[in-house]
Design goal:
α5 (about 150-160) crosses α13 (about 345-370), α8 packs across α13 and α10 (about 275-290) runs antiparallel to α11 (about 305-330). This protein has about 375 residues and is of the alpha/beta class. The radius of gyration is 23 Å and the shape is elongated. The chain has helices at about 40-50, 75-80, 90-100, 120-125, 150-160, 190-195, 210-220, 240-260, 265-270, 275-290, 305-330, 335-340, 345-370; strands spanning about 30-40, 60-65, 85, 105-110, 135-140, 140, 180, 190, 225, 230-235.
């Protein structure tokens, strides 16, 4: 397939001052491609592409890997001069691989179809590849200012200290270019040579495909960095059903990925699977203690019954206070009195749903072993169609 370049069609030349292209060691400019997998999300994709056509970086191509959308995704892509590919895939990893096998670029930037790219996003990612030590680079992602209050509460919960079970959301280390083990696929760039070396994404991966890719890249000896200042606004799920469904899917897909690629596993991913069981045990303890203590929570005649009530209660208070503290000192730009106040609720719902997903994965792994988590992408989005 012969891809179109923007300078042959729609212009994306700088509107905020001319920017020089980054050159390879041979003195020629890097060929830059932006890959966006999409399905049935034309209206939000329209916003993404409108922003990408106004980037400060002068030359690049946009490729849309469209997994048989039933809406007007193709029309939106062509309207903005993007290259549209209809792919037969059932998950993000395979959709990206389908497009990557057709692409002939030096650098590949990845984002999603529900972001609001800053106008200097391409420039701020590509500039780092003038250093041959940089194998891949990414940046943080937070909820955009346009998101409603509930989505901003979700963003604050994602970015709390202490409470995120080892996930990368909200990571914003100090420095200008910092080594890191993983960048989410919503805001990252890779050298095509490295992607080809590791045979792209893992085929059939229904989730955590970006984590697995970064593990493969590092296993091959390449370095990954984060630019803490190159922030991508990324829409959060709204409460409560979409938010909890997303978190449940995160727990499920991460655990089945951990089974297939143990090097990406962290103890915190396993620990959160016990959270729902601990909550049930705590509730049973309180109810049992109240019943046995004559429904008098302050009666200390039987210390065991008293402790059955107050130990879970004390732990609950500690959990709430820790969530408040973690939210207050977290990295979300949407911290406010209101969003921090609701942080314990959103953190609790995230832990419960993520833990439920982990338990679902455990059950499937017992049945199918390493084949768990292959097939169709789990989709928690309400889309255009």
């Amino acid at each position: 397939m012969a891809f179109r370049w923007f300078h042959e069609g729609v212009s994306n030349r700088a509107t905020m001052g001319e920017v020089e292209q980054v050159l390879k060691e041979d003195g020629t400019p890097y060929k830059v491609g932006i890959l966006i997998p999409s399905i049935n999300n034309a209206d939000e994709l329209d916003i993404v592409l409108e922003r990408l056509t106004k980037q400060t970086y002068p030359e690049f191509e946009i490729i849309i890997a469209d997994s048989k959308s039933q809406d007007h995704t193709k029309e939106v892509a062509l309207k903005h001069g993007a290259t549209w590919i209809e792919d037969p895939s059932r998950n993000r990893a395979d959709a990206c691989n389908y497009a990557l096998n057709m692409m002939d670029h030096d650098l590949v930037l990845f984002t999603d179809d529900d972001t609001i790219p800053p106008l200097d996003w391409v420039e701020k990612l590509v500039r780092w590849f003038s250093d041959p030590e940089v194998g891949a680079v990414g940046g943080p992602n937070f909820a955009p200012d346009e998101d409603p209050f509930g989505a901003k509460c979700a963003d604050v919960a994602f970015c709390t200290k202490f409470m995120t079970a080892g996930t990368r959301y909200g990571a914003k280390p100090k420095g200008t270019l910092v080594p890191i083990h993983h960048n989410p696929g919503v805001n990252c760039a890779h050298r095509m040579a490295n992607l080809r070396e590791v045979n792209f994404f893992e085929p059939g991966c229904i989730g955590a495909e970006d984590v697995v890719l970064d593990a493969k890249i590092q296993r091959a000896g390449h370095k990954i960095f984060i630019d803490p200042n190159n922030i991508m606004p990324h829409r959060r799920r709204r409460p409560f059903k979409p938010y909890m469904k997303q978190m449940r899917n995160y727990g499920y897909t991460r655990m089945v990925a951990n089974k297939r690629w143990p090097e990406i596993s962290e103890k915190s991913h396993t620990a959160i699977g016990f959270f729902p069981w601990l909550i049930v045990a705590a509730l049973l303890s309180v109810i049992g203690g109240l019943y046995l203590n004559g429904f008098d929570m302050w009666n200390q005649e039987n210390i065991l019954y008293y402790l059955m009530i107050h130990i879970p209660g004390g732990l609950a208070i500690f959990y709430i206070c820790l969530a408040w503290l973690g939210a207050a000192i977290g990295t979300s730009p949407h911290r406010s009195i209101g969003t921090v106040f609701f942080a314990p609720l959103f953190v609790f719902l995230a832990h419960w749903a993520y833990g439920a997903g982990v338990n679902k994965a455990w059950a499937e792994i017992r049945k199918t072993g390493g084949r768990a988590g292959e097939g169709a992408q789990i989709d928690d989005r309400v889309r255009t169609a």
